[in-house]
Design goal:
Layout (H helix, E strand, L loop, with lengths): L5 E4 L7 E4 L24 E8 L21 E4 L5 E4 L9 E5 L2 E2 L21 E7 L2 E6 L3 E7 L9 E8 L3 E7 L2 E6 L4 E4 L6 E5 L4 E6 L5 E5 L2 E5 L5 E6 L5 E6 L4 E6 L5 E6 L5 E6 L21 E6 L5 E6 L8 E6 L5 E7 L4 E2 L1 E2 L7 E3 L3 E5 L9 E6 L18 E8 L2 E8 L2 E9 L7 E8 L5 E3 L5 E3 L6 E5 L1 E4 L5 E3 L3 E4 L6 E8 L4 E7 L14 E6 L7 E7 L11 E5 L2 E5 L11 E5 L5 E5 L18 E5 L5 E7 L4 E9 L1
Parallel strand pairs: 28-33
Antiparallel strand pairs: 1-2, 3-53, 4-5, 5-6, 6-7, 8-9, 9-10, 10-11, 12-13, 13-14, 14-15, 16-17, 17-18, 18-19, 20-21, 21-22, 22-23, 24-25, 25-26, 26-27, 29-30, 30-31, 31-32, 33-34, 34-35, 35-36, 37-38, 38-39, 39-42, 40-41, 43-44, 44-45, 45-46, 47-48, 48-49, 49-50, 51-52, 52-53
InterPro entries: TAT_signal
Length: 657
């Protein structure tokens, strides 16, 4: 089921892992269709649907709707303030997005003909983007230069129609102005093209170009080996070198010949230069240090991070695009500031192959992602209750942090242990935990301090921070109890206590311990109900009480529901009086169905599925910890579920009858 998300390395493209479509080049499998499956039943009580992690709900048919895309690798800004972005991957195909005045385009860009199937997102998965008047250009991951006609460049909802393509080779940067379109190629050389017919006028023998801009005199400014250099269209070097930028990741030039440089080094700022033979730094945008300034990690309009692009409109408003890696698991933030550096608008996405968790001490009002912290007000209208409060990843101080390149994607757990926070992350396919400790308060930055790894899907964290492992070399169930923090701030765990697998199971795929009742909930397969696919919770879930006593008592066993492909659920969690499972594929015409069981006897209570607030739709669920549940003090339940198709987590608020 994961061919749609097969990762290959594009050698030389800044180490970026490039997703390649393997099932549906047109993204038609990403928003699911109706299938049969287990019978659904009415859930007693009231529930509502909301979401966390994207500025938009993602409602809409395949190829249309509003959501912020999964990543940004490049961007450009038009004079009237439209931000256009390029990305290697967006699950539902928005590989090129248009953003303006707190809105985004509804209809995704799509190429036609043979080009449509050569790259993800209907051919638009791209490395760079440019606009010249009515013409919009994308360089895609297959080495094609695509040309679109934008019917009204002042309206992001107006028709943008594919016109033609030209084979260019893989481009690392592109810029357009007036009658010149320039492409910097991965293999070396800058192609100078005619925008109208995309014919090549000249190829400049320049290499190692990672950023490109064109000034009003039709000369080129480039990022070359970390420096900003100035070239004529004949390839001759011109005066104007800028060599004191710590880590230049992107450049742009506005209509008034103001050069912007994204400095993704320790300063985390956008630098503004007046162009001349000796360019002069005239302004710095953003507070020096970015996320490190003030309270480390705490979000603010003037605190930048992971800079991917910046540009100015004709009124002097600044637009900044931010994304770690770049990789699609990273937060994406697109921000507009006025000339006084006050926030005009911000759009964002924080989830892709990501399962958030609740802070267990917050009564559901604080949520953690792999690199984000959110406040959450469940009673607000759908999609309005969440706010990003902090980014916990500092890629400057901790350049080897596994989260920078989205290692394994992540589900999360957060525990408070002996007065400190510990963040546990696990990849999409299991294999154990990476552990992140937080810097001393008030810092919100976490850094990688340890790992506990091994094969298998049956991993879980209990309320005391202990780690349970159900698939082990000796076929026992292991428990690593949390011991203490070392003097260096590293969490220590005791040697594992080993428990025999109950006779009911031939294969254990989940082991979830509830310390409040000394109960272990085991998911897996039996002699009569065998394995059907990878990473599922199994055909049966059973409860065993008095587990740690050494005399575990069987309480109940329940057959798990099957989705429309005949698969048991992908994940489960427990909270309060209930156990919650989540289906991979649609069931009886409903996407991502949650099935609820009673903890006391294993009886089925009913089902929940996405509501109208998110268009009654979800993508496939394919993380082994894709659901997190919590019972609030007022008796309500919050059930939070992975939703990859359009970059968010769905949250259900349920009050049992």
């Amino acid at each position: 089921m994961h061919n749609r998300r097969t990762f290959l390395k594009f050698a030389g493209l800044s180490g970026v892992a490039l997703p390649v479509a393997g099932i549906a080049f047109y993204s038609h499998n990403l928003i699911s269709r109706a299938f049969a499956g287990s019978e659904l039943s009415l859930l007693h009580g009231q529930y509502s649907t909301s979401w966390i992690g994207n500025s938009f709900a993602g409602k809409g048919q395949n190829g249309s709707g509003r959501w912020v895309q999964d990543e940004i690798v490049a961007m450009t800004v038009t004079d009237d303030g439209t931000v256009l972005t390029a990305s290697l991957w967006d699950e539902a195909g928005r590989c090129t997005g248009l953003y303006r005045d707190n809105d985004t385009n509804v209809q995704c860009l799509m190429a036609d003909g043979e080009v449509r199937s050569r790259a993800w997102g209907w051919g638009t998965a791209g490395t760079s983007v440019a606009v010249i008047g009515h013409l919009l250009f994308i360089t895609n991951t297959a080495g094609d230069l695509l040309q679109f006609y934008w019917s009204d460049p002042h309206n992001i909802q107006s028709a943008i129609k594919y016109q033609a393509h030209s084979k260019s080779g893989l481009a690392l940067a592109m810029a357009g102005r007036a009658e010149t379109l320039a492409l910097a190629l991965k293999g070396g050389g800058i192609q100078i093209r005619n925008p109208q017919d995309m014919s090549v006028r000249n190829t400049l023998p320049l290499s190692d170009i990672t950023g490109l801009a064109i000034d009003s005199k039709n000369s080129l400014w480039v990022i070359q080996k970390g420096q900003i250099l100035h070239y004529g269209l004949d390839g001759q070097i011109l005066p104007g070198r800028i060599g004191n930028v710590a880590k230049a990741t992107a450049i742009s030039i506005d209509k008034n010949d103001v050069l912007l440089i994204c400095d993704n080094g320790p300063d985390q700022q956008v630098l503004s230069y007046t162009l001349s033979s000796k360019p002069q730094l005239n302004q710095r945008y953003g507070v020096q240090g970015g996320l490190r300034a003030g309270t480390p990690g705490k979000m603010a309009a003037n605190k930048f991070f992971a800079l991917r692009g910046a540009g100015l409109d004709a009124a002097g408003n600044l637009y900044v695009g931010m994304c770690f890696g770049p990789n699609p698991n990273s937060p994406v933030v697109i921000r507009s500031l006025n000339p006084q550096q006050q926030l005009r608008w911000e759009l964002s996405k924080y989830a892709w192959v990501t399962a958030f968790c609740f802070d267990p001490r917050s009564d559901g009002t604080v949520v953690y992602g792999p690199e984000s912290i959110f406040s959450y007000e469940p009673d607000q209208e759908p999609g309005k209750g969440w706010q990003a409060e902090a980014i916990t990843l500092d890629a400057v101080r901790y350049p080897d942090d596994p989260r920078i390149m989205g290692k394994d994607a992540c589900s999360t757990e957060l525990r408070h242990l002996q007065g400190k926070r510990l963040l546990y992350t696990m990849g999409q396919t299991g294999g154990g935990y990476d552990l992140y400790a937080f810097e001393p308060a008030p810092s919100q930055i976490a850094h990688h301090v340890a790992s506990l790894k091994g094969d298998g899907f049956a991993w879980n964290v209990d309320a005391e921070g202990g780690i349970w492992r159900g698939q082990t070399p000796d076929q026992n169930i292991w428990h690593y109890a949390f011991a203490a923090w070392s003097d260096a701030g590293i969490p220590r765990f005791k040697s594992p206590v080993k428990y025999p697998v109950p006779e009911l199971f031939t294969r254990v795929t989940r082991a979830h311990y509830d310390s409040s009742s000394d109960s272990l909930y085991i998911g897996g397969y039996t002699a009569n109900k065998g394995k059907k696919s990878w990473g599922l919770i199994g055909a049966v879930v059973a409860r065993y009480d008095h587990w740690k006593s050494g005399k575990a008592q069987f309480r109940w066993a329940a057959n798990m529901p099957e989705d429309g492909h005949g698969l048991p659920p992908k994940a489960f969690d427990i909270a309060g009086d209930y156990l919650f499972t989540i289906a991979v594929f649609p069931t009886a015409g409903k996407d991502a169905v949650v099935t609820i069981f009673r903890l006391d006897n294993g009886a089925k209570v009913g089902n929940i599925s996405p509501g109208a607030a998110v268009g009654n739709q979800s993508g496939w669920v394919d993380m082994i910890h894709a659901v997190h549940a919590l019972r609030r003090k007022n008796g309500q339940y919050l059930i939070m579920v992975e939703e990859d198709a359009r970059g968010k987590n769905i949250v259900y608020q349920w009050t049992p009858a």
